[in-house]
């Protein structure tokens, strides 16, 4: 296969390639340092261009109201972030090796935009959204700043497992050199860069001593990646969640890698669990899963939720994927799995339904005036569609995500009239 | 006949943001969005609602820009008045204005199609919807977006550097 052209890379990162092509691209990226660098660069461009575009929302003088979105309170992000943070933490803790693959580029990018200490306040201000000081008026950019760690956590999603296997020394220079943002940083601080790569190799060594990494991908029967599926070494607390692209990475600590065969289980509500035997020994383990749909789980999910009155508010109950509803839609999105989350908040049940998309993050926030609401935003914080309503029993329900209106209607009907 | 309430609830926010980003004028954006929904009322069938709405909004902007620059000037004037009315801490105001101005300049520097494709992508439209709204082939959207993103970032960075240089000169 030839090197990937930029358009294909962007289409891939946007999750717009058909499955067969996607697999070709993934295989190529895994094997080609040049394209790996191009992917890193493309990610940089995608994130930066979104950031730049959000500045257009900050119309001076407050002509632009706080927002038209029904409610976009500030504080609640804490709650929202907690899940994402948990995911981030999981990535950080469980796969140090994965993180270092992106780390050099991240640090470089931050350096490039970081204010120089000697400059005045005004100069600092001009350094762009990343470096901007938060203020009450600057809701949007503040969110960007808060969410940055999530971007770090997400970045390794696709190329990570490949990078994991590559020798540490190959990695740092490719992505750094590729990014125009990073170029600056490299020129300004080659000394820092040197120190950084030392740190990288130290961390890499630490990671291999820690245990045996297990990586793989969880997909549905149709080959669609399944995000937020749990992958667990059965009978242990060693567990992780898959990224939106279905990939996961976890580490069996050296102390527990006794060579005995263990079971690795992948679970996602709406699917039947799948188990694979693993013998934690050697350098690393690759284990993919194909989960078979279990559509009934959707209704079970609702019923289960309604039976849990009295839980404290704001509890995330469950989430799952329900492929069947989506496959019934007429909108050309057939077969796309729909993710369903159920929350119990202040005596109400809240569902959150979404088409699974790569490069998106989900979060929840508390709107003190109304009720708990959930919002989906992409990496850069742009909100994607949502729909909220109160059902016949006064329960607040929300549907969001970049699904078609037809899909939303069908889902809403299904939720309003669940079959027992 | 469509349920315009539903359409409005589902798409108004994203459409207004898209138009605001595109036009740099919130009032104008809201007007265009409103007109778009009015047109939707008269529309018998839509195969893809979101693509349809964005296409109509695009056309309205184009028609309006062609024939009615006077009204736009008026809106700009109102907008300036509004700006003066609202008091902001100076630092914040300068900072925001600088960012917004650089972003605006960088966005305006893109070719029309690249700009529209990028702004629609940011509102969550997928490639087929963007292709439908712009009358392009789905296969060319990746290339269009990659070019748009690269150019936007490069132009913005260039503006930032110029700004920094100017501030450096002013300081010395």
Structure in words:
- The complex is a heterodimer of chains A (420) and B (172).
- Chain A is α+β, with helices and mostly antiparallel strands and 420 residues long.
- Chain A has 14 helices and 15 strands.
- Chain A is 40% helix and 21% strand.
- In chain A, strands 1, 4, 7 and 8 form a four-stranded mixed sheet that branches.
- About 63% of the residues of chain A have low confidence.
- Chain B is mainly alpha-helical and 172 residues long.
- The mean pLDDT of chain B is 79.
- The longest helix of chain B is centred in the C-terminal third of the chain and has 31 residues.
- Chain B contains eight helices and no strands.
- Chain B is 83% helix and 0% strand.
- The chains are: A alpha+beta (420), B mainly alpha (172).
- The interface between A and B is large, with 58 and 71 residues.
SSE diagram, text form:
The complex is a heterodimer of chains A (420) and B (172).
Chain A: H1 6-13, H2 19-31, H3 33-54, H4 77-94, H5 96-113, H6 121-125, H7 139-154, H8 160-165, H9 173-178, H10 180-188, H11 190-210, E1 211-220, E2 230-233, E3 239-241, E4 247-253, E5 262-267, E6 274-278, E7 285-286, E8 289-291, H12 297-306, E9 315-322, H13 323-327, E10 338-345, E11 348-355, E12 360-366, E13 372-378, E14 386-390, E15 396-400, H14 405-416
Parallel strand pairs in A: 1-7, 1-8
Antiparallel strand pairs in A: 1-4, 2-3, 2-5, 5-6, 9-10, 10-11, 12-13, 14-15
Helix pairs in contact in A: 1-3, 2-3, 4-7, 5-10, 5-11
Chain B: H1 4-23, H2 26-42, H3 49-67, H4 69-85, H5 90-108, H6 112-122, H7 127-134, H8 141-171
